[in-house]
Amino acid sequence: MSIANLPLPQIRHRLNLMLLLGASLTLSVLLITFRVFLSHEVLFAFLLWNLFLAIIPFGLSTMLGLTAGRVKARVLLPVGAVWLLFFPNAPYILTDLFHLEPRAGAPYWYDLALILSCAWNGLMLAYASLTDMQAIVARRLGWGASWVFATVALLLSSFGIYLGRYLRFNSWDILTNPLTLFYDIINRILHPAAHLGTWGVTLLYGAFLLLGYATVRLLGRMGEEPA
User: Is there a domain that residue 183 lies in?
Assistant: First the structure.
């Protein structure tokens, strides 16, 4: 089935969401561009790449979400695997707040707004993408299973954030550096007591992301409740 078979309100909602996310991403790009122009430094230009990586899982989930009806397993499984691989890149931008410090070339408040804007976009892209994927799981396996899926995805995402921020792995390393990546992951699973920071980041960030996601989902439904 194609997008033409989707209900008109669902198509309108999708377009409104993409317009809002597009406007918010444009603001981040403008803030970064003006920062470069103001300081003659490309200090925060790396955030453009991080935003691009955050868009990938949203693009994949949108592609699946715009397909009316049940997505066939032969499409869902490989696309879902790639989605899960890139999904941590979206909430990862929250940790770019680590780069915030007073610097010459731009006011401190400007840099704070710039990084917060990018972090917000990463978080919203993550939640929008996860909403799509959870809806697909709910159609196949039910409401309860969909929340198990969302919880596991956010915990795995938090583990991915740790791998990216502290061990400096990225999504491409599963192809370019799989042995080192696999060794570091297995080492932390087999020896959790020796890597308390790993599980501290995973559980704490996972709880934060899950509570935030549940709050956003609840807020989204408040206006739909009957009077």
Answer: yes
